[in-house]
Automatic annotation (TrEMBL):
It is a multi-pass membrane protein. The chain crosses the membrane at residues 55-75, 96-118, 152-173. Keywords: Cell membrane, Ion transport, Membrane, Transmembrane, Transmembrane helix, Transport. It holds the Pfam family TrkH. The keyword Membrane applies. It is found in: Cell membrane. This is Potassium transporter TrkG. It comes from Sulfitobacter sediminis.
Length: 190
């Protein structure tokens, strides 16, 4: 943004560049020329996406907020997650964890598979895969350099990102009642 004239123009460009990675796919600046911190912030915005009732891709803002609040509740040793005068049950928190886990898993697997044949910059590839998952449409130019396998997998990531990992998970999952109930156990973490 150093080439832009005036503080107002820079603020407007900053605002636009913060909104567009969440769903629009428009750009007024060259993403390939952006510095690494700006690129990482844009990748984060594409991964999160927009609001739950919008057409934006990503995990959605509400999912991120519930994930953060659930983490804070864990560190405060709270047994229930209360937000805005409401209490979120374990099922809702499990959906958030499942959606976030599936989304990160999809991006990481996509990044791995596409990187098998791509020989360019890693950050460019991460940008492309995250943009595909978030169905954003932004690019740093790496998609054009992918081979057939890479392009097909980018298409698959876009399809799953548009459909939604949780929707796909619900479609594939089968509810089954356990025939045996085991005693509670403890998992030691960290």
């Amino acid at each position: 943004m150093g080439g832009l004239d005036g503080t107002g123009t820079k603020l407007l460009a900053s605002w636009f560049q913060a909104v567009t990675p969440r769903t629009a796919g428009f750009n007024t600046l060259d993403y390939a020329a952006m510095e690494t911190p700006t690129t990482v912030m844009t990748i984060t915005l594409m991964l999160v996406g927009g609001g739950p009732s919008s057409t934006a891709g990503g995990i959605k803002v509400t999912t991120l907020i519930v994930l953060i609040l659930a983490t804070l509740a864990f560190f405060r040793r709270q047994e229930r997650l209360n937000i805005f005068g409401r209490s979120l049950g374990v099922d809702e928190i499990m959906k958030v964890l499942a959606l976030t886990s599936l989304s990160l898993f999809l991006v990481l697997i996509g990044l791995f598979l596409v990187s098998l044949t791509y020989r360019g910059d890693f950050l460019d590839l991460l940008f492309e895969v995250t943009s595909a998952f978030g169905t954003v449409g932004l690019s740093r130019g790496a998609t054009g350099e992918l081979d057939e396998f890479g392009r097909i997998f980018i298409i698959v990531i876009m399809f799953v990102g548009r459909l939604g990992p949780l929707t796909l998970g619900f479609f594939l999952a089968k509810r089954s009642m356990p025939r045996v109930r085991y005693p509670d156990g403890r998992v030691y973490l960290g």
